[in-house]
Write a structure and sequence with these properties.
Number of helices: 6
Number of strands: 0
Largest sheet: none
Strand content: under 5%
Shape: globular
Order of helices and strands: HHHHHH
Length: about 110
């Protein structure tokens, strides 16, 4: 999902995603991995209970955390807050907020606790 904001429209956000160095680096790294097992597991789980964030989004965040060398969840949250496109790209369900610069709330980042 590409949110809309009062500052960046959707085409601009798409262009930012395509040109952000942090996103480009993570996309290149993730492209080297076989996600088919995760996708099959997510498909099997899709009919069970309340849908949460995709497992692939959690795994990608975890891999980013390891690659960036963050041992502390607090430091990782600060890193993601300063790189909001890394929150958008892995596929987390966002709390939309058009008043925020990127169109979603980047402060709580509940998904990395």
């Amino acid at each position: 999902m590409i949110p809309a904001s009062t500052i960046f429209d959707q085409p601009t956000l798409l262009a930012l995603l395509e040109h952000d160095p942090a996103v480009a680096g993570s996309r290149a790294f993730f492209a080297e991995l076989d996600w088919s097992l995760v996708e099959r597991w997510e498909t099997q789980q899709s009919g069970r209970g309340r849908p949460g964030h995709p497992m692939s989004a959690y795994l990608k965040a975890w891999l980013i955390r390891i690659c960036e060398g963050f041992r502390s969840t607090t430091r990782f949250r600060h890193f993601l807050a300063s790189h909001p496109l890394l929150v958008l790209d892995p596929g987390f369900h966002l709390v939309l907020d058009p008043a925020e610069p990127y169109g979603f709330d980047t402060l709580p980042l509940h998904f990395v606790t």
